Automatic annotation (TrEMBL):
Transmembrane segments: 6-25, 37-56, 76-98, 603-622, 634-655
Segments forming domain ABC1 atypical kinase-like: 199-439
Keywords for this protein: Kinase, Membrane, Transferase, Transmembrane, Transmembrane helix
Organism: Phytoactinopolyspora alkaliphila
InterPro entries: ABC1_dom, Kinase-like_dom_sf, UbiB_kinase
CDD domains: ABC1_ADCK3-like (cd05121)
Keyword Transmembrane helix: yes
Family: Belongs to the protein kinase superfamily. ADCK protein kinase family.
UniProt-recorded name of the protein: AarF/ABC1/UbiB kinase family protein
A Pfam family annotated for this UniProt entry: ABC1
Amino acid sequence: MDILTFPVIVGFSLLVAFVIGLAAQRLLGIRLGLLRLLATGVFAVAVGPLIMLAMLRPFGLPAGESEDLAHADGVYFWFALLAIVCTVLASMVFIVVVEAFAPLGSIPPALVWGRGLRGRFKRGRRYWQIIGISVRHGLAPYIRGGRDRALAVPSGRAQFGRSLAATLNQGGVTFVKMGQILATRKDLLPAEVTAELARLQDDAAPVPWQDVEAVLRAELGAPISEVFAEIDPVPLAAASVGQVHVARLHTGDDVVVKVQRPGIRPVVERDLDIAARLAARLEGGTRWARGMGLSALAVGLAEAIREELDYRVEADNIAAVAHAHPPGSPVRLPRVHQQLCTERVLVMERLHGRALRDAGDIIARLELDRAQIARSLLGVLFHQIITSGVFHADPHGGNILILDDGQIGLLDFGSVGRLDGALREALQRLLLGIDQGDPLAVSDALLELVPRPDEIDQQRLERDLGRFMARHVLGGNVVGVRMFGDLFRIVADHGLAIPPEVAAVFRTLGTAEGTLTALAPDFNLITETRALAGGYMAEQLGPEQIKQSVTDELAALLPVLRRLPRRVERIASAAENGRLNMNVRLLADERDRAVITDLLHEVLVAFLAATTGIIAVLLLGIEGGPTVTDTVGLYQLIGYHLLAISAILGLRVLVKVFRRS
């Protein structure tokens, strides 16, 4: 072969492959990526000559007489045309098979695949490293699903909690963070497991000052000396995600600077991806993971951790809570310097004091009343939840300060809950029902808080809530965490699913109960909450508030009331004269029309494919008639073409079915 002929043949073959791929794509009514388009064309170029040979030789074309094809009165033209149609049809079948097993979008493009190959190796090595850690700490039987019976008893759950905590602790920053968040999910995990996870410590070696300085300079866009009058290079605290430094602004304000560790985000993202894969695997192979909804839980944990990686979210959270903070409250929030806050740097006012769990000497020196501190903290949390709907969702002892002047400070707003107006109103009615000891009111409010299932035994729910209230509300001093656990158990037994926003409220109250009980052992969360709820409800149901609510409702209804008589008169007149009718516009939404139109098109194409196929079969079964060659009649030739057309139409419908699924 001439050296110049080979490139021409290759170029012509690629051109033919591209044209055939475009034809198959057009006939199927879909769009293909460039790689799939070329693969389809190459497949057609490979099988096309075989199809052409199979079509022409059995139909009476003698070997060696292909040069006379143009002079055969156009007979073989139709055979060649049928071969070309069958080649295109074969390429369409190739596309349908590929779409059935690997739909478009399920496989990354080749460029992305090549770029991510190194990352996949790292992720795979890390994945098996986490599996090895879990096996060493005794989680292998739980991963295989062979310890379901052990999880049914407290000792088995405690052992599982210890193994899980050890695995997460050795897994690194992301898994420690997950464990800490899971420790607050008493609505999902048994108390024995959360108790073990609560012992996880988020401590880490400090980052060298030169690395911290580089992050500050890159985020703030200026030398450190231009932003801060002074900053202590020795961190006040160091954790796995970031560390805190004490500084002073040029204005003289004392601040703390929270700086994210360099390079932590890629590590966290890789580990979050591994955690999601492990959760999906466990949910598919173990009963306990399915019952807990582990995949959905992993998604929620990933969202919470990603929010902690963006310090702008924490700055916005502090601003939102401060906006609704009650004036004159003994609880202080740090003021945020928004102009100095970025994704990896948070600058806020420094509150001088000690963490609540280490503040015994300050409380004793200032002769503070522990019960009053607990009451003030609970009052602020209650106000945030009921009134503003934006609340601190992690009030443990490390996030609460006793300041040097005896006030209380709240820190770490990385975890904040939010409730809309409808949920707050339902929660208020729930608290009012509990305060009045009314199971019916509690049941109605609870069904407004949760998505209501199609079928529910409301009478049994009321009886269970009545027993719950008799035990915890009317039965004297009871541990609050157990109360929340019993409430979640009732909800789960009746097939109800508590929304994450509402679960965050109970989780916050459960965390607050542990914190406040440690502060004041005689403090009763239930009694104090009922007192706060009663006072709040009395305030909301006072004469002035009722009068204001009625006035607001009437103001909103006034335009409707003004138009109502004229509309009633119009309707009555139309009914009297026999002209009352009703206009209903079906499929008024353009999206609904598009769905119906696509469906009708697919039904029509499927009908045409079936009709054409039946006609083709009937023509192929007819004996006699005009002959085209010695072995093929005219009816058979037409039938073959119609059969190819029927297959094309059928594949057009089939590929859309595969893409939709």
